[in-house]
Prior knowledge:
By secondary structure, this protein is mainly α. The chain has helices spanning 2-10, 13-32, 40-53, 71-81, 86-112, 115-127, 129-134, 141-158, 167-180, 188-196, 201-227, 237-245, 269-286, 288-302, 310-313, 316-338, 341-360, 372-396.
Amino acid sequence: MIFRSIFLISENFAFWIVLSLGFGLRLTAVLLVPDYFLFPDSNDYHSIANNYLQNKGLILFDTIYAVRPPLYSLFLAFLYFFGLGPLGVLVVQVFLGTAMIIFQYFLALMLFNRKIVALLASLFLALDPFFILFGALLLTEILFSLIFLCLILLLHRLHFTERSFPWFYAGVLFGVGCLCRDALLGFIVFALFFAFLRPKGFAKAFFLVAGAFVVIFPWTLRNWICLDEIVIITSKKGTNLYEAFGPGATGGCAIMEMNLPQGVKEMNEAQQDRFLTQWTLQYIAQNPQNAIRLGYIKFLRFWNVSLNYEVLKKHPVNAIIILFNVLIYLFAALGFWFSEKKKIFILLCPILYFTLLHLVFLGSVRYRVPIMPYLELLAASGIVVSISSVFSKFKRD
């Protein structure tokens, strides 16, 4: 199917226009965005990469070992080693973002077997303002979204094979995604569900978990050696949970305005992680109504058609973002309504997972970025089905 898709792309002039458009918009954003370090995360990844190149290890500071997943920092360090600076890294991200458009086309063809749906889905991704803008920042969004899209594509292909061992490769890809962004870790539940849908489910699930274990375990072992406690990927879970539900939580980024419990700052990062996790869970149990209220706020923030940040709401780019999101939401709803649910189930899983995840942790349109390709696939299907229905009605009349 992949080779057939490549052949179809080679003869599809319209797709090359879409691909060129996506590349051009991403490159333009990289050249125009004045600040590559707009988010604090960017500084952390940049510092960790430089520390690694200076043989200090994948650390942020001498006492901070596991605050960030390692993959993006390794990605930066690899490119820095070959002489690229931040701008060079962003140009590489332009190519990665463009590669996503190709994989989007593959996935659409596999699911809907219609070139027009694949072309529209690719066009939506090419024009997606979030992928264009986040590709111009030193953040995990582009690399993680590409890995996740490849994982979804692979899970779809494996659903139709009787062989068990290829699920090991899906596990490896899943592990790589987790080391890019630990938010993916809970998605193993959905991946295992796909494994058990077909015969030899236990064998497939075993190879899936084994592949993930092979990738993640060395990092977990390293954290155990450094911190003398088991930290699977990062030590930020407790802090993130506290920011999401603790006193003064807003549903968005608020940790700088929140007061941590007494004594936390004297703990090492692993102790902080464990303590804040336990403390916050107790706080949630004592304040369930507040937790529900915050969950509702996070849901609105996560699915907001506009940027949440007040300063940027008046920026002209936000008007484009609003228009784009409204159209995608409307057409995706049509795609969901008219499509065969078994066919689109693999698209609904990422959407459901990340929505549920960010009812717990912070809600932000930024965290919606990895699931936009699947909404755009549904939207493309919705447009084609709607137009086909209208033409069919005219023919009958």
